[in-house]
UniProtKB/TrEMBL annotation:
Domain Cucumopine synthase C-terminal helical bundle: 164-301
Entry-linked InterPro entries: Cucumopine_C (IPR040602)
Protein name: Cucumopine synthase C-terminal helical bundle domain-containing protein
Lineage, top ranks: Bacteria, Bacillati, Actinomycetota, Actinomycetes, Kitasatosporales
Pfam families to which the protein is assigned, alphabetical: Cucumopine_C
Source organism superkingdom: Bacteria
Length: 320
């Protein structure tokens, strides 16, 4: 570990829970650690893995996470020590606090101190209850150790006037919903659906489809466009892929109630043909952060305990 990295410590606290842990950043992925360090401080809605096990993650307001390459990758994060801190190309800061089931490669940037693991596990249990059933909105604060906390949404620059205006509006909307549920999603989860999407007055299928479309739109479509722009894909191909990937799901989500997302998408598609690479990167990065924020709120608001009567059958084969 380099001397520079060994001196870098971050604090992750959950003020509503009265809990805090300290992590030491290391030099396994210095570019990712730098991106995290340079973004501090920030606050974010804390989430919890829903199918992968005892893992915390939240959307980090760090555009560089979408495309910064890793130096070291753990082939199977199940084997990482408890307390390992990861930065993800899905724009997440994650922390393993116990047993995981998903054999997923991951990019470590540090580790929670051993003395803080009990507090981490306590936080994990409460946060799981919040996401799964109580719906208490728990905020994580990430800051440099010993320094003040804070919060800011990055705003990227563009030279095209319409692109710059779009970025400013997307950033303002992201700021508005970063720590408070979007009005349209909150209403949707209360059964307020102006388009009446959902057959015969049902709500749960619409919620499921909205969650299922929003996540890949942010993670795969916009995240992929950002990475392709950074990696040098020709501009005509970038524009073509943008038109193939984002219009249909965004229009569907607009029908389901996410009208601001659809409006932003239409503005993007109106200008995409004339954007240079830097402006394309700026617009898609800003939209990725916004949509990933929407995805985080979907996971928080969704009534997961509706299926509490369904439990896995251990040791039973299908069809038995």
């Amino acid at each position: 570990m380099s001397e520079k990295q060994s001196r870098r410590q971050i604090e992750i606290s959950w003020p509503d829970l009265g809990l805090m842990v300290t992590a030491d950043l290391d030099d396994r992925n210095p570019a990712l650690a730098d991106a995290l360090w340079d973004s501090l401080p920030y606050r974010s809605l804390q989430g919890h893995a829903l199918i992968a096990g005892e893992h915390l993650y939240h959307v980090a307001p760090i555009p560089k996470l979408l495309h910064t390459p890793h130096t070291t990758r753990i082939p199977d994060r199940r084997e990482a020590p408890d307390g390992t801190v990861f930065c993800s190309g899905l724009q997440h800061l994650g922390i393993k606090y116990g047993t995981l089931t998903e054999p997923m490669p991951a990019n470590p940037v540090g580790r929670i101190r051993e003395a803080d693991l009990p507090a981490l596990r306590e936080a994990g249990g409460v946060i799981w209850d919040a996401v799964y059933s109580t719906k208490k909105q728990i905020v994580a604060e990430v800051r440099r150790a010993g320094e003040a906390g804070g919060h800011r949404i990055p705003v990227l620059g563009a030279t095209d006037a319409d692109a710059s205006s779009l970025i400013a509006d997307v950033a303002a909307e992201t700021e508005k919903i970063w720590l408070a549920p979007p009005v349209e999603l909150d209403g949707l989860h209360q059964g307020i659906i102006p388009s009446q999407a959902g057959n015969f007055g049902t709500v749960l299928p619409t919620l499921l489809f909205v969650n299922g479309e929003t996540r890949p739109l942010g993670y795969a479509a916009y995240g992929g466009l950002v990475r392709a722009a950074v990696q040098g894909m020709p501009m005509d191909s970038l524009v073509h892929m943008a038109r193939l990937l984002v219009g249909v799901p965004a229009e569907f989500l607009g029908y389901c109630g996410l009208e601001p997302l659809w409006a932003f998408t239409q503005r993007f598609l109106d200008v995409v043909d004339r954007l240079d690479r830097d402006d394309f990167y700026a617009v898609t990065s800003q939209l990725a952060l916004y949509i990933n924020c929407l995805g985080g709120w979907n996971l928080q608001l969704y009534p997961w305990d509706t299926g509490d009567h369904l439990r896995q059958q251990q040791g039973v084969k299908a069809g038995a």
